[in-house]
Fold this sequence. Notes:
Layout: E1 14-17, E2 20-23, E3 46-52, E4 58-64, H1 66-69, E5 74-79, E6 90-93, E7 96-99, H2 100-107, E8 112-113, E9 119-125, H3 128-137, E10 139-144, H4 151-154, E11 181-189, H5 192-198, E12 201-209, E13 221-226, E14 232-236, H6 241-252, E15 259-263, H7 279-289, E16 293-296, H8 299-305, E17 312-320, E18 326-338, H9 345-351, E19 361-369, H10 383-401, H11 405-411, H12 431-439, E20 452-461, E21 466-474, E22 480-484, H13 492-504, E23 511-515, H14 532-559, E24 566-569, E25 572-575, E26 583-584, H15 585-590, E27 599-607, E28 613-623, E29 630-640, H16 647-666, E30 697-702, H17 724-736, H18 747-756
Parallel strand pairs: 3-16, 14-15, 18-19, 22-23, 29-30
Antiparallel strand pairs: 1-2, 3-9, 4-8, 4-10, 5-9, 6-7, 11-19, 12-17, 13-14, 13-16, 17-18, 20-28, 21-22, 21-27, 24-25, 25-26, 28-29
Helix pairs in contact: 6-7, 9-10, 10-17, 13-14, 16-17
Amino acid sequence: MTATATTTDPQPSYKWVGTRPVRHDGLDKVTGRAKYGADLNLPGMLIGAVLRSPHAHARILAIDTSAAEAMEGVRAVVTGADFPMLESEMGGSGEEYVDFRDLCRNVMARDKVLYEGHALAAVAATSRREALAALDAIKVDYEVLPHVLDVDLAMAPDAPILHEDMITEGVDPAPDEPSNLASRYVLDRGDTEKGFAEADVIVEREFVTQPVHQGYIEPHAVVADVGEDGKAMVFCSSQGHFMVRSFTALLLGWEPSRVKVIPAEIGGGFGGKTTVYVEPVATRLSQKAGRPVKVVMTRDEVFRATGPTSGSKIRLKVGATKDGRLTAVSGSMAYQAGAFKGSPVSLGCMCAFAPYAIENVFLEGLDVVVNMPKVAAYRAPGAPMASFASETLLDEIAEQLGMDPLELRLRNAAEEGMRSVYGPVFKRIGFKETVEAVRDHPQYSTELGPNQGRGVASGFWFNFGGSSSATVNVNEDGTASVLTGSPDIGGSRASMALMAAEELGIDVYDISPIVSDTESVGYTDVTGGSRVTHATGLAVIDACRKVVADLRGRAAKVWDVDVSEVEWVDGRAQHVSGDRAPMTTKELAAGAAGTGGPITASAAVNARGAGAAFSTQVCDVEVDPETGAVKILRYTTAQDAGRAIHPSYVEGQMQGGVAQGIGWALNEEYIFDSGGTMENAGFLDYRMPVASDLPMIDTVIVEVPNPGHPYGVRGVGEVGIVPPMAAVANAIHDATGLRLSELPMSPVKVLEAIGANGG
Length: 759
């Protein structure tokens, strides 16, 4: 069925998309929300496509685009030469900083391609068929170079060097020769030699994890429209449209004011959409073509050309006394950064033993470049791999001491006022409460059958603050709009509405939470680091309190009294003497023109005080000794949420993290052939968990309020993915007696371990 729309008002004009009219500024007329970049259609829009390298490592000798440019239907072609080459400078991007020089070389290759899928050129044409034909017409001459994927091989003396100008940072004295070791991070506290001398039991083991992808369902998609005035409108889904504005302008050599980003609803991110890939490319194509350009990544491109998280090789040693006191930790963690520096290895070092009181710690983190896509954040970046290693060793210590693994954790648990392993002193935290919640849960005492086992593990994530802005407008009917710049990827719109309703004293259904574009609200950092309900919530609370102060002042003007005599109670202005009839928000809003005009307030914060997050989890498995298949029987996760603003969304975040962690533990991995080509770049072969793979994941919300937030909020989106790999590994050990130290623990690997152990 088709539909048409007519209007006598030329502004705004509408184009029907599917069954709904969409304004040319990208806002859905029915819902007021921005459409997906992949769904948006603008008049005269072109289709963009990107040419990607088939080689893992090669020097680019020449790129000939002349044949493509001459083809019918092709309106623009760009290569790396169409983008400025930026100097090395570090800037913010979610949980990690990024080097702008690396960012521009990742978006479009220059002298070399550094991984299979690295972008070489892009075209815009009147149809996808014509765009793909133009890509085939582009001729590229390569000098294929040796590649390297393994961190140990990348650091070997004879390894092929990815960047001839990369000198290892964090090493004294600085090396004279380039290498693939980008940097060395050291966490050094106490005297590990003394600590190990005090230990009655010492365990040491090596662990290996493979890169895994965030697996968001929606691919990267963008529509860019550069007008005759040289300004661009960019429609896309991301975890931060201000980040998209900043990075797109930077990579084009523009001022940020030339780019307006309209956020669309986001179909998953988990950290993978905290950077840009096709947004600057589509914008440059639009500028050259003089028409809007749409670029939508295929699933194959998402796997091959966007950031998974790091694979790792970790060696750890842990000592403890016979009564279960942890005395020392030492080890080395080498993380794959992908083609450009910047793995989350430092975060891994800081998180590995953060839940525990340990005086003597030495951890070395190595950031290693390899011929793979540049890694991106993935839910608590760096922590899951580190905790897989540390929590497995703690289970082994408990076993050797004959101690319940939860009791071992309780005896060493970090508490309020204790200096953390990574430096700061903990304020009020709820780690012990999460351990006790699992200990007291019925699952922990459920009887196990043959080939079944139970494992526990704990995890930590910092949670971040950062910059956020909010505007609150009271409408004429007493309802309110809450405008923020934080894309909603986990229910944050609901939490903003709930906090605003609490502050204003009106019904939550009278609040309209809106994610605004980059010209309608103040600068806001990306949705990442479990920061939004805390940081953006603080901005909303601040703005609401300004509105309440304004409403009190207006009531005072109506009553001709001092504002100090007016209280705000349950959404109404009340005189302290009680001799005047209270005035509701609706009444004050209706008379706003006579008391000062529109009722609105804005606030901006650089939030501090994000409370640390902890989770403890228990997993029951059954291992098939004939096939090596691991079935998750029962799973319970307990997490300190501070104060659960929206409990069902909190539970969803907890369950989602566990589901992704189970996939990481049992099935997910990047598989490469000998030429560095990814062999499983699709959901059919990249095995993510589906509903039939998982039981109902039970949740226990622990509420130990964070003193850094008026409502006690702690971020909940990330720490849930930290314990599952170790919990599953410990459960497999309990069922089979086997200690598996390499992920994923797929049926093939489990069966091999069973066979190597004599069945």
